[in-house]
């Protein structure tokens, strides 16, 4: 193996490791900052859904929009809330899959670099 091949292989491995590390930190940030991806947010969603369902059908329900409120039927609020909860769960699952993939990619890159440095003997 020529020295340019060795340099190219080493450079590709280092870039892969750096890119995976950066993407993994972005995924961790996304998991921490989204309020619906933690257990407290999920519990709050569940309690809100139970409270909405316990209301009688003829009660006036309002949704906040900035500094104002607008009237919505209870069924519409519940269906919107369930759709938001489902999309949050889907996003959480996607982030967790991406996290696992990036962790595996990072570990493989580190292992490749370790093996490369271990087998590279000074000549």
TrEMBL record:
Protein keywords: Chaperone, Coiled coil
GO molecular function: protein folding chaperone; unfolded protein binding
Annotated TM spans: none
Coiled coil: 78-112
Gene3D superfamilies named among the record's database cross-references: 1.10.287.370
Top-level taxon of the source organism: Eukaryota
Descriptive protein name: Putative prefoldin subunit 1
Originating species: Zancudomyces culisetae
